[in-house]
Amino acid sequence: MELKSDYFLKPENFSGHERVLLFHNGEVLHRNNNFFWPAATVRDICTGTQQHSLIVGEYSLRPCVALGLSDASFALLGAEKASLRQLLFNNEIEVFAAAGKANQLLHWYDNHRYCGKCGATTVLHSSERALVCTSCTLNFYPRINPCVIVLVIKDDEILLARHVGKASAFFSCLAGFMEAGETPEETVIREVYEEVGIEVDNIRYVRSQSWPFPSQLMLGFFADYKSGDITVDGKEIAEAFWFRSGNLPVTPASSISVAGQLIELFLQRFELRERNRI
Q: Any idea which fold 145-277 has?
């Protein structure tokens, strides 16, 4: 029996109205920077392969689906590749939003072909976005990994850090994954102390961002310096300093990351406070 689902769709059943995002080995495929492929093109190369596309959502009033191609299908297509980070830094915001969600779903789908409990194969759930074990019937849903990202403020200065192993000269906010049993605020306190050896308080939530590398949800915070001297851990953080608004290093752009947005918000509030003093 053919599976009818709101979450999975075989290419041979495309209506022709879909906008299709294609991936191969974790990269997005395009032709002359056109990232959405015609449904007919994909249907022609994938019909009969038993592959399912994953329904991502609606973009520009049309359904969007994603499909990871086999080596053979990729060779037939003759496409170019781009990483998600290339889309992000090239300011392809609409494509990045769709491709980011698609990448998270494909990462989940590709990594749960077998049950983590008993080792049996999984199949598509008939009515949910899930994979089901054929033996023990355990369900596997797309995984989201919550992280905190925090801008630490000390009077008129902010703490920015450069990460170990990053070729980029970017300085950014501190960040880390939440651990089991933690609240986001507890994670902020722990991560800041582990990475730079200082204590913070007055932690307040600002905003969030989906970060598909591969499946993070970034929760952005401000926190005030409480005590201690900067002592980097040397494992994750290479160097960290206090910066004033007039001498900031190269930082992430606010158009592409919550880190840049936190920094920009601080600068806006600092400038407003300075104007009010005049």
A: Nucleoside Triphosphate Pyrophosphohydrolase (3.90.79)
